[in-house]
Specification:
The protein is mostly helical. It is built from 10 helices and no strands. 65% of the residues lie in helices and 0% in strands. Bound molecules: fe (ii) ion.
Length: 202
């Protein structure tokens, strides 16, 4: 149990954030980022406690990537204020770097796998949420990769989501965008209940 584990990240996020949609966004980004962390742990041959320790910063960086956003949404302050707080509190470098890098305007280079996974998960998880919410069932289980690809080409749909950030994320991870969508979609389907995306039909 460390000061810088998931529970403490969740606590810090909730101290700064009251918006339910921002909290849901953090959980969706966490779900996708952690799926990549677990994949990377397997690739590195880690298991048990080692794998858990490896994946922990994927949880915390994702939960904290926008924790200052509600109080400081402007580009002059968002992420800068948050990272300052994380530094004061002593959060690990890897977490602070990933939080900085996810905001492209900081011009922080993507270095670690965590940096890339967080950036790649940020816009896509929001897009997948939007894809679920337009289904009659409002269920993430009814979303399919092909449908997501189609919606990406529909400029009127979820206009706030930058399509080029989704494809850039896949590029950073070195995988085709279809694979990236599939990875995040499956991860969010596994956590559908936590994310409130299990649908309305009982
Ligand atoms: Fe975000």
């Amino acid at each position: 149990m460390s000061m810088f584990d998931r529970a403490h990240a969740w606590q810090l996020l909730n101290e700064w954030t009251t918006s339910p949609s921002l909290l849901k966004h953090a959980l969706a980004v966490e779900t996708c980022t952690v799926a990549y962390g677990e994949q990377e742990a397997v690739r590195l041959g880690l298991s048990g406690d080692e794998a858990e320790a490896f994946v922990e910063p994927y949880h915390t960086a994702a939960l904290l990537h926008d924790f200052d956003y509600e109080r400081h949404p402007s580009l002059d302050e968002h992420v800068w204020v948050g990272v300052k707080v994380l530094t004061e509190q002593g959060w690990p470098d890897a977490v602070r770097h990933a939080v900085l890098a996810h905001a492209s305007y900081t011009s922080t280079p993507f270095e670690s796998h965590l940096d890339k996974a967080l950036f790649a998960s940020d816009e896509l998880s929001g897009f997948l949420t939007a894809c679920a919410l337009v289904k009659p069932s409002k269920s993430i289980h009814d979303v399919e990769v092909a449908g997501v690809r189609k919606k990406m080409k529909d400029k009127a749909f979820a206009r706030g989501v930058l399509r080029e950030d989704i494809t850039r994320g896949a590029d950073l991870l070195g995988i085709p965008v279809e694979e990236h969508i599939g990875n995040c979609l499956r991860a969010m389907q596994r956590e559908a209940v936590m994310l409130g995306l299990e649908g309305t039909s009982a």
